[in-house]
């Protein structure tokens, strides 16, 4: 995981970027905005070379998720971008000429990574109308995009250490950014069937162990779409 | 965005805007030519010398429109090259930043190749841009030449109009409008050339 970038401009949201690496593949998840491309790439180079980065994933179309695409497009050769089918025409505005856009259908998909696999789990309307999370069945990690996100200052711990206190940092974000209660329920029903050790959102701290269940219960009870 | 890039974007926008005005004026000339033809037809022998001039004005207007349309297409290409150059310059800057930030990283060296490729591409775009600017300048000068020709025709038209008896005023008005339009086109094209000349420095 990459994040907690102290050098990022003050007025842009901090984001978590994730990387999964196998013998022959390296996937970057929600690689971030153009503003953080340089520190992100520099951090990645501690683990893999530029040529070893084979795949990118964008959970949805937001700039903090994938506006760096044009830069990855210049840097990478023979890479693929997995992203929601409905956003293809929009995400391409960030620049996607050499990278192959692999459109994820609404019902999700599974990709093989050497001997393992990654599952793209539908999370539509959470918050984007075309939205996917990524489940790694081997590591039992769910990268949950904006679900579980909290707006916190730089330098907070990696994991939630006091769930009750943490809910206050998540409440407004989820109520205001997430538009649909039925979509929320569908996602919770789907995700409860997965075995999850770590829930890894795109902003703020990660949840592990019992806090994953606590989060799902809290989220289930939370009314969302409050702006109307 | 650096000053050179800003100048490039402004130059391309100037050309597009000025050339749109040229097309409007050229269409007005074409209309004036059609009008003159009708008057010359009614005037018969009194405007015998004026008749071939109307055809010439009409052809000149048509050719100007065609040339300007072609120049506009080239301006669109120039705009795309400017955008591409801007994007690749941004990439170069970011890649250099990566190299600076990744000092000591195990795979820091692997960023050098994308940076080199981006620099080559940037160099190519600059070369393309310069080539397209030269092409544009040549084509703009040909439109300028058309405008000068139109002014000469306007002078001839005045002379011919003076022998057209009761049609003198109508035909002189045509000659005036052609002359005025040619002057306007000259000004528009001059501004395009000036905007491009700034890029050639």
Q: Could you list the spans of chain B in which at least 5 consecutive residues all have pLDDT below 50?
A: none
| Helical/strand content category of chain B | mainly alpha
Number of strands of chain A: 11
What characterizes the major β-sheet of chain B? Answer: none
**Overall number of strands of chain B:** 0
The greatest interface here is: A-B, 21 and 20 residues
What is the residue-averaged pLDDT of chain B? 88
Characteristics:
heterodimer, A: six-stranded mixed sheet, five-stranded mixed sheet, 7 helices, globular, B: 201 residues, 87% helix
Describe the 3D structure.
The complex is a heterodimer of chains A (228) and B (201). In chain A, a hairpin with a 4-residue loop joins strand 1 and strand 2. Chain A is built from seven helices and eleven strands. Chain A has 228 residues and is of the alpha/beta class. In chain B, 87% of the residues lie in helices and 0% in strands. The two termini of chain B are 19 Å apart. The model of chain B has no long low-confidence stretch (mean pLDDT 88). The interface between A and B is medium-sized, with 21 and 20 residues.
Task: Show the helix and strand layout.
The complex is a heterodimer of chains A (228) and B (201).
Chain A lengths: L17 E4 L4 E4 L7 H8 L10 E3 L5 H4 L2 H7 L4 E5 L3 H4 L8 E5 L4 E5 L2 E7 L9 E5 L4 E3 L19 H15 L3 H12 L5 E3 L6 E2 L1 H12 L7
Parallel strand pairs in A: 2-3, 3-4, 4-5, 9-10
Antiparallel strand pairs in A: 1-2, 6-7, 7-8, 8-9, 10-11
Helix pairs in contact in A: 6-7
Chain B lengths: L2 H41 L6 H52 L10 H50 L6 H32 L2
């Amino acid at each position: 995981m990459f994040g907690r970038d102290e050098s990022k401009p003050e007025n842009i949201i901090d984001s978590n970027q994730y990387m999964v690496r196998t013998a022959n593949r390296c996937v970057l998840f929600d690689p971030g905005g153009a503003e953080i491309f340089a520190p992100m790439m520099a951090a990645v180079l501690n683990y893999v070379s530029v040529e070893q980065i084979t795949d990118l994933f964008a959970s949805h179309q937001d700039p903090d998720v994938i506006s760096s695409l044009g830069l990855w497009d210049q840097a990478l050769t023979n890479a693929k971008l997995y992203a929601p089918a409905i956003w293809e025409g929009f995400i391409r505005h960030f620049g996607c000429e050499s990278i192959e856009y692999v459109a994820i259908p609404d019902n999700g998909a599974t990709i093989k990574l050497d001997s393992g696999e990654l599952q793209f789990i539908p999370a539509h309307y959470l918050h984007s109308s075309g939205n996917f999370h990524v489940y790694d069945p081997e590591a039992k990690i769910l990268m949950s995009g904006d679900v579980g996100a909290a707006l916190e200052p730089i330098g907070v711990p990696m994991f939630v250490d006091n769930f009750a206190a943490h809910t206050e940092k998540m409440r407004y974000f989820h109520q205001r950014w997430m538009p649909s209660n039925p979509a929320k329920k569908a996602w919770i029903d789907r995700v409860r069937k997965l075995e999850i050790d770590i829930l890894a959102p795109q902003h703020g701290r990660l949840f592990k162990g019992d806090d994953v269940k606590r989060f799902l219960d809290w989220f289930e009870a939370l009314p969302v779409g409050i702006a109307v | 965005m650096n000053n050179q890039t800003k100048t490039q974007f402004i130059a391309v926008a100037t050309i597009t805007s000025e050339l749109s005005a040229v097309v409007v004026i050229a269409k007005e000339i074409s209309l004036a030519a059609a009008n003159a033809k009708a008057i010359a037809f009614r005037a018969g022998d009194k405007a015998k010398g004026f008749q071939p001039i109307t055809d010439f004005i009409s052809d000149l207007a048509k050719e100007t429109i065609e040339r300007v349309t072609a120049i506009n297409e080239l301006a669109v290409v120039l705009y795309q090259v400017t955008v591409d150059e801007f994007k690749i310059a941004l990439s170069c800057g970011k890649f250099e930043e990566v190299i600076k930030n990744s000092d000591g990283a195990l795979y820091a060296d692997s960023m050098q190749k994308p940076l080199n490729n981006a620099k080559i591409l940037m160099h190519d775009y600059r070369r393309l841009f310069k080539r397209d600017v030269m092409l544009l300048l040549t084509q703009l000068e040909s439109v300028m030449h058309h405008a000068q020709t139109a002014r000469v025709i306007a002078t001839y038209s005045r002379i011919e109009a003076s022998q057209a008896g009761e049609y003198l005023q109508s035909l002189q008005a045509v000659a005036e409008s052609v002359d005025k339009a040619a002057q306007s086109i000259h000004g528009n094209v001059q501004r395009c050339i000036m905007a491009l000349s700034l890029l050639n420095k």
